[in-house]
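User: Study the fold:
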Amino acid sequence: MKKQFSKIAFAAIGVALTITACKNSPHPGYDMVEEGLYAKFHNRDEKGIKPKEGDIVQVILVVKNDKDSILTDSKNPKFNRPGTNYYEFPLMKPEFKGSFEQGLAIMAVGDSASFLVNVDSMYKGKPLPPFLKKNSMLTYDAKLIKIKSKEEAGKEQQKMAEEQKVMAELRKSEEPKALAKYLEDNKINTKPNANGLYYLETVKGKGAKAAKGDKVKVNYTGRLLDGTIFDTSDKTTAQAAGSFDERRPYEPIEITLGEGRVIPGWEEGLLLMNEGSKGKLIIPSSLGYGEQGGGPIPPYSTLVFDVELVKISK
């Protein structure tokens, strides 16, 4: 009888502790699983292998603010490489109590969970971005799909680098053909300058001509040769292209010519324009992002920019 009573008593204590933990959580449906970290597991393998600090993890991830606006989504090509639905990164040491890294460290492959992370803890000592509210929580919806050691990741990266080198060489040989076809399809007969830059003026500006050292404001939309928009300063264009990002302002970009803060094709092209001019810049990869590419721009990509030189400050 005593043994049976002990089992019942311990079971009751366990239930009581669970209820207390839930009551102590200020976030309904979430339990505090680590100090400062609140989680709601949808699938959990308690005995599964969990990542260690330094391991490379692959995570399907959506992060939202307190207004349910999506800040990043691994399945969305706007935030990730096209064709990839996960983020891959090393598991780092948590920088603060209640961080997402703490949550990842208690997940096993196949686990899915939602974590709440306090923005004040994340940005301690730093100003909050305008899309975050003081003392609000970010929601991390995560599914851990793979864990790799540093050694495994190193071998994969080496193999990927070799494959990318082969693809880059292929793109390098194809770039002149793709440009020639674009020019023919769009009936463009303008000759390029000595560096291969094409400038097609559509509206002649009445203001002064841009010069090195000038501060200029420029509206722009950048496309690949197939018409894909990869960046724009125009909100309506971004919305139509499905690339609108509420975190950034949509307004003319301001640069000082000659400082090298933009690609060479922009520097050369803007120096051909007057204030108020509109035109099209066709920029070969040698004046753009070259053999490396950048973000959504593949290596050896000729770029097409619709630009408007809004203002020049001498």
Summary: Confidence is low (pLDDT under 50) at residues 1-23. The longest strand covers residues 137-148. The chain has six helices and 13 strands.
